[in-house]
């Protein structure tokens, strides 16, 4: 099994084989909490205007997403797991767009199979890959706003890779240490309305969920996400 780690939209575009698009802070952590909270499906798109078009197509659906980390005007929800946990999502369709994560899903046009990745389900991702034994695995760390390397995304990719290669490592201390590096922004009082401290702790609950999110490309170019349990 060949395992390759890359970054950003270009990494997603070049990804091949079984591809994991990784966004820890916060897109794919949000989606895991949404499915755990009863959402029936998630449609991911890279464009806010496309998200609004999809909402018209699916009455009763909810819009969730961010640009520059803040909730998009007119959207029902931001990109915060804290906010997700306060909502009744039972049976709902969630339409999700973010600066990095969902843009990566849409960009992965050469992948054979796409799943999402985050720390909250990283071991489930590794088991999913190991069961399928693909020849090539692409781990794409989407980064901060898909343009700056994100320590948490690269750490998640390394954690998944280490499990696939049967290596052990002390990842717990490194994850906790994110509070003082990449996760500092969650503790800035100026960000509390859209990026509260609880988001940091929810996004770094390693292996909280035993499921993966499969991404299926739609005819309109957007992505349907569905939960696969283990």
Give structural notes.
- It contains nine helices and ten strands.
- It is α/β, with parallel strands linked by helices and 230 residues long.
- Strands 1-8-2-7-9-10-3-6-4-5 form a ten-stranded mixed sheet, with helices on both faces.
- The longest helix is centred in the C-terminal third of the chain and has 14 residues, at 151-164.
Overall morphology = globular
Classification by helices and strands: alpha/beta
- Major sheet: 10 strands, mixed
Computed CA radius of gyration, to the nearest angstrom? 16 Å
Poorly predicted spans: none
| CATH domain fold name | putative 2-phosphosulfolactate phosphatase
The CATH architecture term is Alpha-Beta Complex
Number of strands: 10
How far the N terminus sits from the C terminus, by CA atoms, comes to 22 Å
**Spatial order of the strands in the main sheet?**
1-8-2-7-9-10-3-6-4-5
Task: Give the proportion of residues in helices.
Answer: 25-40%
Can you tell me the number of structural domains? 1
Task: Note the total helix count.
Answer: 9
SSE string, helices as H and strands as E: EHEHEHEEHEHEHEHHHEE
How much of the sequence is in beta strands? 15-25%
CATH homology superfamily? ComB-like
Average pLDDT taken over every residue: 97
CATH structural class: Alpha Beta
